[in-house]
From TrEMBL:
Pfam families: Pyr_redox_2 (PF07992)
InterPro entries registered for this protein in UniProt: FAD/NAD-bd_sf, FAD/NAD-binding_dom, Ferredoxin-NADP_redctase_2
A molecular-function term among this protein's GO annotations: thioredoxin-disulfide reductase (NADPH) activity
Domain named FAD/NAD(P)-binding: residues: 2-273
Transmembrane segments: none
Keyword set, alphabetical order: Flavoprotein, Oxidoreductase
Catalytic activity: [thioredoxin]-dithiol + NADP(+) = [thioredoxin]-disulfide + NADPH + H(+)
Organism for this UniProt entry: Actinomadura litoris
PANTHER family documented for this protein: THIOREDOXIN REDUCTASE 1-RELATED-RELATED (PTHR48105)
Protein's UniProt name: FAD-binding protein
Length: 318
């Protein structure tokens, strides 16, 4: 039996496995090999790892965790039985005392030709992750969600040449005033497609005709947590996301969650920290259980001795 089975081998899962391995816990990481940031060539904002490729981070993380005895299994988890039996889709199962789910989220993208093909390259989401790399370039924001205006106002500090394409989003008078005050140009009309030239984004074509030259565009995807394993175990949700305490403990005893599966705003460095915090909480929880198990024989002997004394007293009429 494993002390902990970690499901998901991204930054959160591997960080947790590293901490637990160093705590001399028996740990397995089950990873399906579908990281959310796979399309990105680099990750930014991670102290000492700024500019590193996501794939390289995971490779190093796996090696570091394995150095402390963590077993990494390339597989997908089909379901988890209470208890916990972790069943793999290709067959086989793992028994665990505790579970940490770090399966991340998936991005639902708008059905605009070119968006999916350029996602993570020059069709971007997070200004903090990618804004500096496209600074001072002609940028665009696609109005594919309710936060498009806020997105554009934030991105303005990375470029003086910024265009908001409302697409099918209705702008209020207050929206237009704020955008104008910040120097964000608004180009009305529905977006037909993204135009590329020699494998790079070159512009945004409108359904009514005309193409606005842009070298990168940002949009807010619809983020959907990959939390099916958690909800199947009965973990409660709040506002569309699994509810946890600050350490990542869910409403189901023995089940933790870390990373984007519980927080859509978590960047790679944040997810790693969440994994570390969850690991320490899990280890403390296991330690409490270990202590109770160690005390059980003493309690049993004390109870037996007490029963013997009571029986002796009765024999002597006391």
């Amino acid at each position: 039996m494993y002390d902990v089975v970690v499901i998901g081998g991204g930054a959160a899962g591997l960080s947790a496995a590293l901490v637990l391995g160093r705590a001399r816990r028996l740990v397995a990481v089950v990873d399906g090999g579908e990281p959310r940031n796979a399309p990105a060539a680099h990750m930014q904002g991670y102290l000492s790892r700024d500019g590193m490729s996501p794939a390289a981070l995971l490779e190093v993380g796996r090696a570091e965790a394995a150095g402390y005895g963590v077993r990494v299994i390339d597989a997908r988890v089909g379901h988890i039985e209470p208890g916990f039996d972790v069943h793999l889709t290709g067959g086989g199962s793992l028994r665990a005392r505790r579970i940490l789910v770090a399966t991340g989220l998936r991005d639902e993208l708008p059905d605009i030709p070119g968006v999916r093909e350029r996602w993570g390259k020059d069709v971007l989401h997070c200004p903090y992750c990618h804004g500096y790399e496209v600074r001072d370039e002609p940028l665009g924001v696609l109005g594919t969600g309710p936060h498009a205006v806020s997105h554009a106002l934030l991105l303005r500090q990375w470029s003086d040449d910024l265009v908001l394409f409302p697409h099918r989003t209705e702008l209020t008078g207050a929206d237009r005033q704020r955008l104008s005050a910040r120097g964000v140009r608004v180009v009305p009309g529905e977006v037909k497609r993204l135009v590329t030239d020699e494998g790079r984004l070159s512009g945004v074509e409108l359904a009514g005709g005309g193409t606005v030259p842009r070298t990168a565009v940002f949009l807010a995807s619809r983020m959907v947590p990959r939390d099916g394993l958690l909800t199947a175990l009965g973990c409660e949700r709040a506002d569309g996301w699994v509810r946890t305490d600050p350490s990542g403990l869910t409403s189901v005893p023995g089940v933790w969650a870390a990373g984007n599966v519980r927080d859509p705003r978590a960047q790679v460095v944040t997810a790693a920290g969440m994994g570390s915090a969850a690991a320490m909480a899990i280890n403390h929880d296991l330690t409490d259980e270990d202590v109770e198990a160690a005390l059980a024989p003493f309690s049993a002997r004390a109870e037996a001795a007490n029963c013997a004394r009571v029986a002796a007293d009765r024999r002597h009429g006391l």
